[in-house]
Amino acid sequence: MRRTARSTSHGHDARGKHGASVAAVLAGALAVGALAVGYVAFLLWPRWPAASAAPDAPTLPVTVAGELFVVPPAAIRVPLQRHAGVHERLDLAFLWPSLDAPDLTAKPVPSEDPPAPDRLFVTIAGADATLPPAARLKTIYARYLADEQFASGDGLVILNFRDGTPYQGEDLYVEAAAPERFMPRCSRPCAGATPGTCLYERRIGAADIMVRFPRDWLADWRGVAGGIDRLIAQVRPAGS
């Protein structure tokens, strides 16, 4: 009887230890499962964009394609982009020729005549796999340019794109002394009140800065080129 009682006691102990082990394993599995569910919920939980900065706030540090820029909030055209941090692209506007950010509270003065253009429109976006502007002149634009060239008389060479090409209706203005320094592509004025517009591009690291301005401003193209240089220096922190 003593031997039987001892055996029964050992059996209870073994079953108790086994049950405790199973409970511990189940508890661990449940904990891991809870962590996994929590992690998935964190990934799927909607994230709201950062609060927009006030237009009169100080300049914001922003990053596009890994490149650092500092821009005044009032120059950012899209309200949802008015926050510091990483951006896929930025859409900006600056007054010409002061290069100040526009006063967003100013109201236009009523007039029968359309207002004179007074802004540079700037887009900063990742360059991705596109060629830099100087390389495009030799590898892409050259295939679509007409044979004729025209000298403007003030240091620019005007190259026309042929009809039936992707750049039909546009001209390429190239600084004769340094084509890679100033090379805007400009649409021709259309019938009516539609003016021609120029697109100037510059590669900054892995980002492209694209500047749009009226074609008529090319009458003072050196002033435009110098203003764009100052603007780019203005939005790039020292040492970048």
Count of the separate structural domains? 2
Return the string of H and E elements: HEEEEEHEEEEEEH
Alpha carbon gyration radius: 32 Å
The proportion of residues forming helix, as a percent range, comes to 25-40%
Shape: globular
Oligomeric state as shown: single chain
Polypeptide structure, described:
The protein has helices at 2-44, 133-139, 221-235; strands at residues 60-64, 67-71, 85-87, 89-95, 119-126, 145-151, 156-161, 170-175, 185-187, 197-204, 207-214. Strands 4-5-11-10-9-8-7-6 form an eight-stranded antiparallel beta sheet, with no helix packed on it. Strands 2-1-3 form a three-stranded mixed beta sheet, with no helix packed on it. The chain has two domains: 1-47; 60-105 and 116-235, no CATH class. The chain has three helices and eleven strands, in the order αβββββαββββββα. It is α+β, with helices and mostly antiparallel strands. Helices cover 27% and strands 28% of the residues.
In short:
By secondary structure, this protein is an alpha+beta fold. 27% of the residues lie in helices and 28% in strands.
